[in-house]
Specification:
The protein is an alpha+beta fold and about 120 residues long. The chain contains six helices and four strands; from the N terminus they run αααββββααα. Strands 3-2-1-4 form a four-stranded mixed β-sheet. The protein is globular, with a radius of gyration of 15 Å.
């Protein structure tokens, strides 16, 4: 199968990609840096619901891209989990996290979120 077909197949059908399919696509691309993999993953499955903040910018915890701004109010906190936050909203949202949110994200705070997510 042509590489382009592998990557565009799910976009045309709007079918959610499975973890196995994602790993296959990354394997086809060969040797990539961690940063490249993270950006590609976000382009294929979307940004993580796990976010970080600096000043008013909201960043995807996986690819570090700006995905929102508090001052412009262009974000939806109903699904976001802020790293290091222990508020009721973040804890409730953490229970809704899936493998897509955790994929290629590491750190102490992530382990805590995985425990919350697995305690559904």
């Amino acid at each position: 199968m042509h590489v382009l077909n592998i990557f565009t197949r799910n976009m045309k059908n709007k079918k959610p990609i499975t973890k196995t399919e994602l790993l296959e696509k990354l394997k086809v691309l060969g040797n990539l840096s961690k940063e490249q993999k993270k950006k590609i993953v976000c382009s294929l499955i979307g940004n993580s619901s796990i976010v970080d903040m600096c000043f008013s910018d909201i960043y995807c915890a996986r690819c570090d891209e700006v995905i929102g701004d508090i001052l412009r109010k262009d974000y939806d906190k109903s699904y976001m989990v802020l790293l290091g936050h222990d508020c009721e909203i973040c804890n409730n949202n953490a229970k809704k996290l899936t493998w897509e949110d955790f994929f290629l994200i590491t750190g102490k705070e992530i382990n805590k979120l995985k425990k919350i997510a697995n305690s559904k």
